[in-house]
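1st attempt posting a full record on here, be nice pls
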Amino acid sequence: PKAISEGLTVLAAEEASRDLVGALLVEDFGTPPPEGVERHVPAFAPIGSLLDGLDSQYRRSRKIGAGTHLHLFMLGVAQRASGRGIAHQLVRTCMANGKGRGYTFAVTEATGPVSQHVFRKLGFREIVSATYRDFLYDGEAVFSSIQGAEATILMEREL
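the predicted structure (as tokens):
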């Protein structure tokens, strides 16, 4: 609801069918996140903890207020539409929208090699990361079995 109410989220649909083929959920990084996400989706708690840790490190070194930093937090493209540049266009559209609304930075936590590649290609730079094999949640290495990705990377780009 927060992402929708702020009007920053971007969707991609096929022109002819109007079928949804991609989405980039975006929120204002300078306003509080929705309460209780972990309570509603308990399986989200470990990744939420990892992302919260990265976000806290980032916030300690920046002045972040409402309307300054876009938070690009979930990028997805339907498998049947992959390879068509949809992810790149979603991010470019989001950044243009944010810049037009006065935002000066975009921030994301890229969790896998594909999203990390997309964001790097669009000028995002790594700020801080958390390796999956070393991250502990309630004393357990809950992400140690992840293959093909080494870490979640918090990245930023000036708009």
